[in-house]
Design a protein that fits this description.
2 copies of one chain form a homodimer. With 720 residues, the first copy, chain A, is mostly helical. Helices cover 65% and strands 5% of the residues of chain A. Chain A is built from 26 helices and 10 strands. In chain A, the strands form 4 sheets. Chain A has a 4-stranded antiparallel beta sheet. In chain A, strands 4-5 form a two-stranded antiparallel sheet. Chain A has a two-stranded antiparallel ribbon with strand order 6-7. In chain A, a hairpin with a 6-residue loop joins β9 and β10. In chain A, α9 runs antiparallel to α10, α11 runs antiparallel to α21 and α20 runs parallel beside α22. Chain A is globular, with a radius of gyration of 29 Å.
């Protein structure tokens, strides 16, 4: 307990030590404050010269007009150290809050888009810690750092010429990162808040009711949305889990083979598919369709309500500065009138349609080819082995599997780079749009990789018992692996490595180590740095076990949920125990994810977002595909085939009937989706109110400005 | 020529006669004008007492606050006559222009949402005839008449109590129409403009380049959109028409049987499907997919450009008064703060999902059952006839067809009423939303009625030669019928009936007739009234011939295009001459529609709209279905079946391949649709500019209003 309290104590000491005096000066009188909160840590390369550090610090504290970020900087230990601590003055925080389009509580109690000029009418405006969440303050600092741009061509002091040249309008932070001057930019943990959050979150006894608002405040939008969804999803798994258990154990004639049973005679299994199993198939299929639709529709409502609650329902990203990586000919933005790089939309669309999509298609083709090659070689080798009957040929049987794993991994790694480069070349203006398209690319590939084999078994081999076995083993194996990697390994790492680290903090060697990293010994940030190294090892380990491309934190978590959801909605009628297994998995998943995030990872920057982004779409598409998949699974089930043969229907008539059933189900799904509005009424009304009032305001403003215009010469009017 | 000029002459005389003196007074000084333009004619029932007429006139001219329409009224001949002529003062026109959210040219040259307070900065503000189009002025009058609502419970003078009771908040116009007091409300033709438009439009020699702006100015948004689309569609038919002609006449081995050839041996036809016909099938199918996608995407761009040009891209229907038929508990609209009936959205969605959709589904089921019954009876009767061999049973063969026609007609008539009542009960707030859902209902049914037989032949019977024959005969027969009903009949009617009418105008009996209708003899409106009677007969005639539910003007025109487009995109690979035939048809269609609208029908009220509404969706859905349809047609073609049998593929493998091909094509279609932006860049920029400026303006306005608030006591702030 003492060791846990200590860093926090040190932290508060530090804030006192590094009081206003040692921070850069503020020009604005309202921003002068006795207490400055360190928000973000910039880690420099060890080789960086003091003159470069000085220059970086001066740029960060320079006003926006001079290309700076108008933030507060602190040199850490001394000017030679390889770190810079950044804080934000009140004015900058408020200005960027307006730029981002964040909504805050207005004096009338409504969430209202913040406006700097109107700041006095917002609640809590005097206390930045109450007005903005920690995550928002840190994101604002990052936003400001990202938007530092060179005003004119210049040289970065202390860096040799080819690397140190800085062209006008180039993002300074990106340039410094590329030149290797800046190693890392991370938000700082607030140990006091973190401990409180952890207690509420993963140490509590109750199974539900995560402290979503606290998560949002501490970790920010994207992460809060993930946990909200996880929470909601877990709760929603109860109905299908109950149905699954009921079908498996209480419907006596539905003899589903359990996943663990190693059955060597597939024909025996086929005989098990007697009449009631068809009806349980159908119940599962229809239920799965209804459930997935209602699930997604209610989530959308919840998501809209959360986005109002968190003040992100009115984000104005298209009117902000473009993201740092955006490039194009500099010109005047016709909408905002700002000078910024411009890139025509049709070019982007052309690149997406004619380059990105075909390239992704080729990679998906390569996955399919790999699978086909694997099956082909396997048959070849096993025939050969059987033919020869020799013991020497036995190891050869494993060659196709090994080759396939290697192939998949190599392909995955190549694809990861290709996807990033494709998205870069699409040159998205907004960060969210970049993320959206990058995530989509990786997502499609990962998903395809995961499901190609199952689809092959289901629709080409039409081997339902094999599908059932494969599904069961996938669920159980991945679950065991997950439990191990996500619970046991982190726990051990935390217990031994971290405790060691904590104990060492008081001793010389660890202090040396921390000082060598350029951090003040008292800064709790050090452990973050160490964790980030551990997490890198861990990530590699995950990727090895899960046979996934090494993915970034949240992406990996989401794709895990998505793949699970896929097992459930696409194939659950084959293996009804999917839902109960997933429910068990998720109950632990919530805790371990929370623990991992709080204890084992760097605190990430997390942008304010209005929804789950591309993941919402992915889940919806999946629940749409599930209707089709369930229909065809039903059609291909041996029992239904027999029935239709008995009824004397031709194959094309069956086809037509199946298509009709499929379309009726899709229609039903769409009607259901339509009947549940995407946002609660109260959110819709708030949104429409804003729309209405801004329409009115625009008209009023025009009158005002035209009255002002009358005093100006006619030429000046054209600028409006 | 003299007879054509005359009504126009009379018209201008009338305006002089009915100068400012005989119109109701205007209170507003800016609205006093020496020339008042009569815009709308209200026809009363003949039995209406002068006191009722007096009351209606006083309500129309009463200010909005007193529940009136603030318009100008003229009693026609005298207070006993059964007509009221309505005009609009400048202030009312401008106020409603703002309410509707119409955009007009601002002083800086941009289209800007009109604002009454800022009126002096808009171009042409001094001349209402230039500022607003005729159609807009007339629509504004109708809008104002529709929004007359009783302020309190009262009695309509001169009408017996049960009918004459008027409850508070009830729409006065609707009440009067229901009580049979008002027979008709029609906009007046302006003969001078109409003659000029007609010359430009249907009398010109060139085939393209319709005067869209003039059409928009004279007839209004919905009609202008129809003609824009028709124009665009006809032009777009050239590529498929050329391909169709090429495939039919220049590909020697593709022996398509022409539509007229009565071929009694279907087996002989099947042998014609030799190898190249498969490839021409495929070329047609792929081309049709590409063409329909590009066609719709480019239309969307054109539509967006037109909507900017016509100032309707920023319509604010949700903030207007609800439509007259809207009912609900009276309350304060949370968005606009106005007192109006409120109806919860979830109730509407529930009614749609649980009542409307199932009922429509039942009717579609009845269509299918009717068709199945027809086929069953036909087989039964023809077998019986063959068995008996007697001449007496021969007429029985026609019974199923006749029964089917009667059944379809009866069903159609019932459905028409049901669709209207369903939409009424859905209680839409906006007129456009009502139209949307009503049109969708009728559209789905009509479309189903038209295509059920073709789909049955294509996918159940799988009889391609029959499909080809049926398609050819449908195209040729409907075309001949259309040409006859749309060109010959209107021409004859116009020549004989109308000329007679024109000659009679100078003689006593016709003047008597006109006076009996309550119209001044000099009013050119009379012919409009007569035309409306003729058009009613004509409509019945159309409906009889076309075996359609009697449909209203524009709907019938659109559905004709849609059904044609369906023939083309769904089945064109079977009969490549579809496109050339459609092209021929459309070239005459443009002229005859224009002629009909100008000469044979009442001038309709036409709301300002931003796009084609539901029709755009309908065309898009159809072009989506066409991908699926073409795929399956290809799969079902006998030659492809042989090929797959030769290749030794199992039926389910073929199925999977077909599904994959289908999905690849759908993907390609979606990518293509994505790559073509839905609106031209310049429209997008204008839209975003408005969005950005209103966001800014809202913030600025809040500051202003909060400064005003500071002077008010704290309680008053809550109302904001």
């Amino acid at each position: 307990m003492t060791s846990q309290k200590e860093p926090q104590g040190e932290f508060s000491t530090l804030t006192k030590v590094t009081g206003p005096s040692s921070w850069s000066r503020v020009s604005c009188p309202c921003c002068i404050s006795s207490h400055i909160e360190p928000l973000v840590l910039i880690q420099l390369a060890e080789s960086v010269q003091p003159i470069t550090k000085q220059w970086i610090m001066s740029m960060i504290s320079a006003p926006v007009k001079a290309g700076g970020a108008q933030l507060l900087v602190h040199p850490g230990e001394d000017m030679k150290g390889d770190m810079i601590v950044v804080a934000a003055p009140r004015c900058t925080l408020l200005r960027v809050t307006e730029d981002l389009g964040l909504c805050k509580t207005y004096q009338d109690g409504n969430m209202t888009a913040f406006s700097f000029d109107d700041r006095d009418n917002f609640c809590n405006i005097d206390d930045m810690k109450k007005f903005l969440t920690l995550a928002e303050r840190q994101y604002i600092v990052k936003y400001e750092l990202d938007s530092m741009r060179a005003i004119e061509d210049q040289r970065i002091p202390g860096i040799p010429t080819p690397k140190g040249k800085l062209k006008a309008r180039v993002s300074i932070l990106q340039k410094l990162e590329k030149a290797g001057v800046i190693r890392n930019v991370t938000p700082l943990h607030d140990q006091k808040l973190l401990t409180a959050l952890g207690k509420q979150w993963y140490s509590q006894k109750s199974l539900w009711g995560q402290p979503l608002d606290s998560i949002h405040a501490y970790f920010g939008g994207t992460i809060a949305y993930y946990f909200s969804f996880l929470d909601y999803y877990t709760l929603s798994l109860f109905p299908p889990a109950i149905l699954g258990v009921f079908i498996t154990f209480f419907l006596p004639s539905a003899n589903f083979s359990s996943g663990n049973k190693t059955d060597s005679e597939p024909t025996a299994l086929k005989d098990d598919d007697d009449h009631p199993s068809v009806s349980s198939y159908m119940v599962q299929a229809v239920f799965s369709m209804l459930w997935s639709t209602i699930f997604m529709e209610l989530w959308k409502r919840r998501s809209a309500a959360l986005s109002y609650r968190w003040g992100t329902f009115n984000l104005a990203e298209q009117f902000q500065e473009p993201r740092p990586g955006f490039h194009g000919e500099v010109g005047t933005n016709p909408v905002t009138g700002r000078l910024e790089p411009l890139f025509p939309d049709w070019k982007r669309r052309l690149r997406m349609g004619l380059v990105s999509v075909p390239v992704v298609g080729v990679f998906l083709g390569l996955v399919v080819m790999g699978m086909a090659g694997f099956y082909f070689c396997e048959r070849l080798v096993s025939n050969w082995h059987k033919g020869s009957g020799s013991y020497f040929t036995a190891p050869l049987v494993y060659i196709p599997s090994i080759a396939h794993i290697v192939y998949t991994n190599v392909l995955g790694n190549i694809y990861r780079n290709v996807a990033l480069q494709l998205t870069e070349s699409e040159n998205h203006r907004e960060e969210s749009s970049f993320d959206y398209h990058h995530t989509t690319k990786v997502l499609v590939f990962t998903f395809f990789n995961n499901f190609a084999v199952l689809f092959h078994i289901a629709f080409f081999k039409e081997d339902m018992p094999l599908l059932r076995k494969r599904l069961a083993s996938l669920l159980i194996v991945t679950q065991v692996v997950n439990q191990f990697t996500e619970v046991v390994v982190p726990f051990l790492v935390d217990r031994f490595l971290t405790s060691a680290d904590r104990n060492l903090k008081e001793d010389d060697p660890e202090v040396d180590h921390l000082q060598a990293q350029g951090s003040l010994p008292a800064f709790p940030v050090s452990s973050t740095v160490l964790y980030s190294q551990i997490s890198r090892i861990q990530e590699l380990y995950f990727s090895y076990i899960l046979n996934l491309v090494p993915l970034q934190g949240l992406f990996a978590e989401y794709i895990e949920l998505l793949v699970q959801f896929g097992y459930l909605s696409l194939f659950s009628c084959v293996y009804p125990l999917t839902a109960p297994l997933l429910l068990l998995n998720n109950l632990t998943e919530i805790r371990t994810d929370a623990y991992k995030l709080c204890k084992l990872f760097n605190k990430p920057f997390s942008a304010p977002v209005a929804n789950m982004g591309v993941w919402q779409l992915a889940f919806e598409v999946l629940s749409f595909i599930s209707v089709v998949s369930n229909c065809w699974l039903l059609l291909l089930s041996p029992r239904v085939k027999e029935l239709t043969q008995e009824a004397g229907l031709s194959s094309s008539q069956i086809l037509v009937i199946a298509v009709i059933v499929e379309h009726v189900l899709i229609m039903a799904k769409m009607i259901l989706a339509f009947m549940i509005p995407d946002e609660p009424d109260w959110v819709r009304i708030k949104r429409e109110q804003i729309e209405f009032h801004s329409m009115q305001a625009l008209k009023k403003q025009r009158i005002k400005s035209s009255r002002v215009d009358e005093k100006l010469p006619p030429k000046a009017k054209m600028g409006e």
